[in-house]
Amino acid sequence: MNHYQAARRPTFYFIGVTTGQSSIMKVFPKWASIMGLDAEIKGIDFAPHSSPEEYRACVNFLKNDPLSLGALITTHKLDLYHACQDLFDYTDPYAQKLREASSLSKTDGRFCAHAKDPISCGLALERFVPPDYWRQFGGDVLLIGAGGSALAMTLYLTQEKFGDNIPRRIIIANRSQPRLDSARTLLSGLNGRTQIDYILNPTPADNDRTLASLKPHSLIVNATGLGKDAPGSPLTDACRFPEDSLVWEINYRGDLIFKDQATAQQKKKRLHVEDGWNYFIYGWTQVIAEVFHHPIDAQLLERLSQTAKQP
Q1: What does the pLDDT look like over 135-182, one tens digit per residue?
Q2: Containing domain of residue 100, as a range?
Q3: 172, 239: one domain
Q4: Quick one: pLDDT at residue 158?
Q5: Are residues 146 and 226 in the same domain?
Q6: Residue 136's CB: how many other CB atoms inside 10 A?
Q7: Residue 4 lies in a domain
Q8: Which of 65, 70, 160, 231 is the most buried (most CB within 10 A)?
């Protein structure tokens, strides 16, 4: 038996680490009103890398409870997928490639797993990466962290449809080797024109050294949970960003030390510093559209974003 209680009304779940601190808990009811959805949101918290049994108990509950409509998953996308893949009736191509699930939903009696990050991170990147950026400047990409977000960004940035407007080099740096090994396996067979390096950086000082090796006009991303799910930054205060580069803190809440470190060098190094707000909006709206079978056009998206910014 598990501790989950059957939903009494249509319910959408947020599976994360500190879900009660997320603004979505206050924002979703406003969004539901705007979209005409009769539904509530509930958070389910797990410690990072929880046991397969814990993930399976949760997913079995969601699959079999009639009024539990689906879920958005952060932090646990890889671990939950690995523990529960046999419970899904359908997995989309991105979920199969990345072996992760960021969205659980029900369609025509089927329990479905989707990986929405390659779509949502792509939409967010398009908001601040100038057109023709990689072809024009030839900068590097440093993704600090080897979790689902880093894999999704690599998949997005190397798509064949972009022709030669792709990074020539992507570095995925992580503090533990197993995630790097997993990333290497999952990302095999991508666009051969991009060199992907997998670097073991156990400490922030190691990341500083990798950062110092980048070309100007690079993209540097904090794809760790540091700043949101855990305190700190993957860099030290002694870090030096490459000039004329794009710096993306994909978290939008918490003590965002990584963003502060970039902002401190913004003027001198001519950096564009981006936070995770648009990623947050696209990530949630992509999943909500899937779970509730409710298309979200550009006009509705902007209304939802503005509503989310209100106190």
Answers
A1: 999 999 999 999 888 999 999 999 999 999 999 999 999 999 999 999
A2: 11-115+278-309
A3: yes
A4: 96
A5: yes
A6: 11
A7: no
A8: 70
Give the contacts of 145 (CB within 8 A, at least 6 positions apart).
172, 173, 174, 221, 222, 223, 224, 225, 234
Question: Are 22 and 102 found together in one domain?
Answer: yes
Same domain, 140 and 216: yes
User: What is d(CA 167, CA 19) in angstroms, rounded to the nearest whole number?
Assistant: 34
| Lookup: tokens for 67 | 């009024």
Give tens-digit pLDDT for 15-30: 999 899 888 999 999 9
Q: Are 195 and 169 in contact (CB under 8 A)?
A: yes
